[in-house]
Amino acid sequence: MSALFDFKSLIIVIVLFICCCSYIRDLRPSMVNSKTEGFTGLFRKAAVIGDRLSPYVALACVISAMTTLFLR
C-alpha cells in the first residue's frame, strides 16, 4: 500500500521530510534558500518547523521508530 493512503506511513514520511530539511539546512544553508516561493519554499518551511520544534520532532521520530520496530 502507498504511504499516502496509510495514515501511520504518511506521518512517518512527513516527520522524516522535516528532519531531512533541517539537516540539509544545517549542512548547506544555500540549498534551503529563504527567498524561494512555491514548491521549493516547502523545504524552507519544513526546515523552520524542524528547527523550532526540534524536541517534538525528535520525539515523533523515536515514537515512529518504536512503533515500526515493535508493532508492525
From TrEMBL:
Superkingdom of the organism of origin: Eukaryota
Ranges annotated as spanning the membrane: 7-25, 53-71
Membrane topology type: Single-pass type I membrane protein
Cellular component, GO, one term: Golgi membrane
Pfam families (UniProt xref): DUF1242 (PF06842)
Protein family according to the UniProt entry: Belongs to the KISH family.
Key words of the record: Golgi apparatus, Membrane, Signal, Transmembrane, Transmembrane helix
Subcellular location: Golgi apparatus membrane
Function text: Involved in the early part of the secretory pathway.
Protein name per UniProt: Protein kish
